[in-house]
Amino acid sequence: MSDSLPKGNETILIVDDHETIWDFLIDALSELGYSVLLAENGLDAVDIYEANPEQIDLVLLDMIMPKSGGHQTFLRLKALNPNVKVLLSSGFVSEEEVGDLLEQGACGFLPKPHRLPVVVKEIRRILDGEKSNG
Fold first, then answer.
1. Exposed, middle or buried by CB within 10 Å (0-12, 13-18, 19+), for 19?
2. Which helix (H) or strand (E) holds 61?
3. DSSP result, 96-110
4. Per residue of the chain (134 residues), what is the pLDDT tens digit?
């Protein structure tokens, strides 16, 4: 499966409160060569990003979480680094519902459940600096 997927060596911060999702993503992305950090909520995500701003190349941000939801977390990350690359993700909100964040610089939106080829393609598109087709 992973033979045909594009590999990378960047660092990705996964922000999600569901263990099954982060286990899947960490295993899959690590196998493709990425370094993966994990935050289980938005507050942890901001702390981790603040502590490692130069190391984190992309944030995969779930929209619905305890402590600090996706909107609030995105705005706090943007305040720390206006150029932060954030890929939004949710099984509960639609792309229209995060339109304001996309307008404010979020790099894209992935509906859940995640399909690995789609996730990896979006990650590469963002890290390689290509614009969204959206």
1. exposed
2. strand 58-62
3. GGGHHHHHTT--EEE
4. 446 899 999 999 999 999 999 899 999 999 999 999 999 999 999 999 999 988 999 999 999 987 888 999 999 999 999 999 999 999 888 888 899 999 999 999 999 988 999 999 999 999 999 655 44
